[in-house]
Amino acid sequence: MSAAPAPEGTTPTGGPTPTGGPTPTGGPSSDPVVSLRDVEVHRGDHLVWSRGSFDIAAGSVVGVIGPNGSGKSTLLRLLLGLLEPSAGRVEVFGEPARRGNRRIGYVPQDDTAAQPESIRCRDLVALGAGGHRVGLGPFGAARREMAERVDAALAETASSAFADRRLSEVSGGQRRRVSLAQALVDDPELLLLDEPLANLDLRHQRETVELIERVAHRPRADGRVTTTLIVTHDINPLLPVLTGAVYLLDGHPHHADIGDVVDEHLLSHLYGTSVAVVRTPQGDLFTRSV
Ligand SMILES: Nc1ncnc2c1ncn2[C@@H]1O[C@H](COP(=O)(O)OP(=O)(O)O)[C@@H](O)[C@H]1O
Ligand SMILES: [Mg+2]
User: Of the residues 2, 74, 193, which should be mutated to test ligand 1's pocket, given the most ligand atoms within 8 Å of the CB?
Assistant: First the structure.
């Protein structure tokens, strides 16, 4: 797949311009949700990126952009504690990143690839719920409470209608929604989505963006705000929802407000091809290679 931004002739997606988007709020505390200091990361002997120093505030919706192989998925794996930095500090919610952090929801790039095809969508979502680690599963009130949470996550992602079908019986777009439901069932405060729009047609891309926007801003029972990081090789469809971006430029990650990232010079340098930023008469913003 090409690393370039939208090809010439791409239709802009609707919605408000990024500058008109929601402003991140600090929530109960204004401490950053994600904080990197002088981070360097290797995969095997290969230095993926270095000098990573940035903070992401609670409530942000941040795109992670850069060419193929620049280390976008690697950033998510660091936050999940699945990879250790070779230097520097990676903190999530003010603590060193660690595996099994239930405050994080994650939808991997290959989504349901590791799941058995015969599993029912509802059961896949239940795997994301806290109860499944208890040997025989929860009983009584706990079981009912878990079933309610699974139903809520299925409804939130418009997946209720096919919840009882097996994975082998639903479409690619429906799988995506079920994976998102699984990531949401524990009501994570930090949501990490790796290429959620890949391989979706334009209509399903648009529906997924609307879903991400709803999920990113949904009210939470604990009064906190959700913070969302979205890895994407094409920034265009997500421009209406992003408040900021981490861009991987020349082997170093940088974080900036989205208004500063949607810049012809920066994006052309980033993707290694000439990129134009276009504003439509309706005020929509999009980028295209020229
Ligand atoms: N499991 C792995 N072992 C060794 N190298 C890897 C592994 N996964 C990814 N890499 C390498 O790390 C770099 C960054 O990969 P990745 O974070 O997946 O990039 P992106 O998500 O931006 O496409 C690439 O050069 C890739 O080849
Ligand atoms: Mg990737």
Answer: 74
SS3 for 78? helix
Q: Which amino acid belongs to residue 234?
A: D
Residues, CB-to-ion distance under 5 Å, ligand 2: 72-73
Rounded Cα–Cα distance for residues 1 and 184 (Å) = 28
Quick one: tokens of 3?
């690393």
Instruction: Determine whether the shortest distance from the Cβ of 32 to ligand 1 is under 6 A.
Output: no
| CA of 253, nearest ligand number | 1
The domains found in the chain, sorted by start residue, are 1-29+56-73+190-290 (3.40.50)
pTM metric for this prediction: 0.86
Q: Whose CA is nearest to atom 24 of ligand 1?
A: 69
| Protein residue closest via CA to atom 10 of ligand 1 | 43
- Which value, to the nearest 10 degrees, does the dihedral of the CA atoms of residues 26, 30, 36, 37 take? 150
pLDDT digit string (tens) for the chain, length 290 residues: 334 444 433 434 443 444 434 444 444 457 999 999 999 999 999 999 999 999 999 999 999 999 999 999 999 999 999 999 999 999 999 999 999 999 999 999 876 677 788 999 999 999 888 655 444 566 677 788 889 999 999 999 999 999 999 999 998 888 989 999 999 999 999 999 999 998 888 888 898 899 999 999 988 888 899 999 999 988 999 999 999 999 999 999 999 999 999 999 999 999 888 998 888 777 777 888 88
